[in-house]
Design goal:
3 helices, 6 strands, globular, about 40% strand, six-stranded mixed β-sheet, alpha+beta
């Protein structure tokens, strides 16, 4: 994690075509997730995909990481997302997913997408900001700001997510539940 020094960190820029293509990928991914379209979202994940949400802590020392090392609110693989999370929305299971009925209305607003080349050829490290709005039934919207750190890989058919770490800004999460990919 970087600290606030008043200067922008240096990074290795990517070309405009790669940047535009990645931005489009993130727009499509958010649209799929907002629509609960897991059958079309899961193929965007690489086999080794890992999704983590570390525990956010408030620290007095700004040079320390805003998360607690090794502690996660969510630590999932592609397989667990497919078999446990996405299955809740299949027609045979939705009647038993009482926490999902009626569905929450979710919007993900992804901004400040910054890409730089990764350690391997064809991989990119992506930092972005995300604001999530969740409405359940007629309750007021719950808003959750977060930062995301992704590793993506270029594929012949587009992009694949290798990993995602989502760091919430708030140390007390007010979302109705955490079983949503941010």
């Amino acid at each position: 994690m970087s600290t606030h020094t008043g200067r922008l960190p240096r990074f290795r820029a990517v070309d405009a075509d790669t940047s535009s293509s990645l931005r489009h990928f993130y727009d499509i991914e958010a649209r799929l997730l907002d629509a609960y379209d897991y059958p079309n979202w899961l193929p965007l994940l690489e086999d080794e995909f890992v999704y983590r949400v570390p525990v956010t802590v408030t620290r007095d020392d700004p040079s320390l990481a805003p998360t607690f090392p090794g502690a996660y609110l969510v630590d999932e693989s592609r397989d667990s997302l497919a078999s446990l999370w996405a299955r809740r929305f299949e027609p045979d299971h939705i009647d038993f997913a009482w926490g999902e009925v009626p569905l929450h209305r979710i919007r993900r607003f992804v901004t400040n997408v910054v890409a730089e080349p990764g350690e391997r050829d064809g991989e990119y490290m992506i930092d972005s900001n995300v604001l999530v709005s969740v409405v359940h039934q007629s309750q007021p919207a719950v808003i959750a700001p977060a930062g995301r750190h992704d590793l993506v890989r270029r594929r012949p058919d587009g992009w694949g997510l290798v990993s995602r770490t989502t760091v919430y800004d708030e140390s007390v999460i007010r979302l109705p539940h955490l079983r949503m990919v941010i």
